[in-house]
Amino acid sequence: MFRIGHGFDVHRFGGEGPCILGGVKVPYEQGLVAHSDGDVVVHAICDSLLGALALGDIGHFYPDNDDKYKNIDSMILLKDVVAKIKEHGYKVVNSDTTILAQAPKMASYEAKMRENVASVLEVEVSSVSIKATTTEKLGFTGRKEGIAVESVVLLQKV
């Protein structure tokens, strides 16, 4: 049995950089505004994993009004979500994530993001895709107001 999940998340720029994306500190003059560390890549992946099993979203499990999640490393949240997936008798087959951002440039950081995420998902790096695209200067991402991320995962019953 297979389950597909889709995740989407957005964070606006604000404060000092760097941006944390896929567990990597990507140099930029601004960070991302969030209750946690603002890792919009990991948040979208968490939502896709939870969505695949119809468990809700990360806000349900890690609400932004709970101080224990203030400034938390989002990779910790991802590890917890993976544990929930395992508890339901599933494993990750693959993950495909697209970052929509005019800035910062992140091509040189994508390999490390993939390694970080693959490690937590307990899959080979070849099963994790993370790529970035601009929006050709259109919309809020094109105006460099923030970053949006979409993620799709495939889970398999163990």
TrEMBL record:
What cofactor does this one take?
a divalent metal cation
Q: Which GO terms describe its molecular function?
A: 2-C-methyl-D-erythritol 2,4-cyclodiphosphate synthase activity
User: Which keywords has UniProt assigned to this entry?
Assistant: Isoprene biosynthesis, Lyase, Metal-binding
Q: Which InterPro entries match?
A: MECDP_synthase (IPR003526), MECDP_synthase_CS (IPR020555), MECDP_synthase_sf (IPR036571)
- Per UniProt, where does a divalent metal cation bind? 9, 11, 43
Q: Annotated site (Transition state stabilizer), which positions?
A: 35, 134
Which SUPFAM superfamilies does this chain map to? Answer: IpsF-like (SSF69765)
Q: Does the keyword Metal-binding apply?
A: yes
Cite the cofactor comment.
Binds 1 divalent metal cation per subunit.
- NCBIfam families recorded for this chain? ispF
Outline the subunit composition.
Answer: Homotrimer.
Identify this protein by name. 2-C-methyl-D-erythritol 2,4-cyclodiphosphate synthase
Q: Which organism is it from?
A: Succinivibrio faecicola
Query: What's the source species' lineage?
Result: Bacteria, Pseudomonadati, Pseudomonadota, Gammaproteobacteria, Aeromonadales
